[in-house]
Amino acid sequence: MKSPKFRIGWYVIHTKSNYEKKVYNTLKNNFDVFLPMNKMVKQWSDRKKSVEKPLFKSYLFIHLKSPKDQLFALKTTGVYGYISIEGKPALVTDVEINSIKLFVGEFSNIQLAPFEICIGEKRRINFGPFSGYDCFVIGHKGKEKVIVRIDSLKSCISAELNKSHLAVLSE
Q1: Model-level pTM?
Q2: Structural domain boundaries in the chain
C-alpha cells in the first residue's frame, strides 16, 4: 500500500492532557506553531481572576514543510500524534488558522460546540473584524450566537454577537 503524499501546511498535534504549553514552547524554536488561548474570568469565593487556557484542549497547530519535520515534531515529549480524519492527517487551511487567530484576538470566554449542533440559518457578519464571513446562527436566551465552522477539526467556535451585526445572505 502506497503511503499518502506529504502536503505542506498546518497540522493538528494531539498532546497529553495539560501539555499544550510545554509542547508549544519546545516546538516554537524550530517550527511555526500556534496555540490558540481562550481568555476568561474565573470566579473564586473571594476574587475574580483573568486566566488563559488553551482553546482546544490537548491540541496544537503546527506548520510542517517536510515529512522529516513531521517525524521530528512527533518525537517531542508530550505528543501523542497527529489528528486524523478518515485515516489521513487533518490539514487545516491558512484561512481557518487566520480565522481562529482573529477569533481569539477579538473575543473572550469562547465556547466550543460539537460539529453536529452547527445548524440553523446561514448569515453573513457585517460588522467588525469578521465582516464578510459567513456563519450559522443558533438562538440562545434571546440572543444569536455566531458559529464559525472549522471543518478540518470537526468543531465549531461560538461567540455572541448582536443580531444587528448579521445580514441575510442573498441567494
Answers
A1: 0.66
A2: 9-92, 111-168
- CA distance linking residue 134 with residue 103, whole number of Å: 14
Architecture of the domain made up of 9-92: 2-Layer Sandwich (3.30)
* DSSP helix/strand/coil, 154: coil
Q: What phi and psi, each to the nearest 5 degrees, are found at residue 135?
A: -150, 170
The rounded distance, in Å, linking the Cα atoms of 64 and 73 is 9
| Residue 145 in grid coordinates | 450566537
**C-alpha cell of residue 127:** 460588522
pLDDT, one tens digit for every residue, the chain (171 residues): 455 688 899 999 999 999 999 999 999 999 999 999 988 888 888 888 888 899 888 999 999 999 999 999 999 999 999 988 767 788 889 988 998 898 888 877 877 654 433 445 676 777 777 777 776 665 554 444 555 555 445 666 666 666 666 666 765
CB 122 within 8 A of CB 170: no
Q: What angle do CA 25, 149, 59 make, to 5 degrees?
A: 20
Name the CATH topology of 111-168.
SH3 type barrels. (2.30.30)
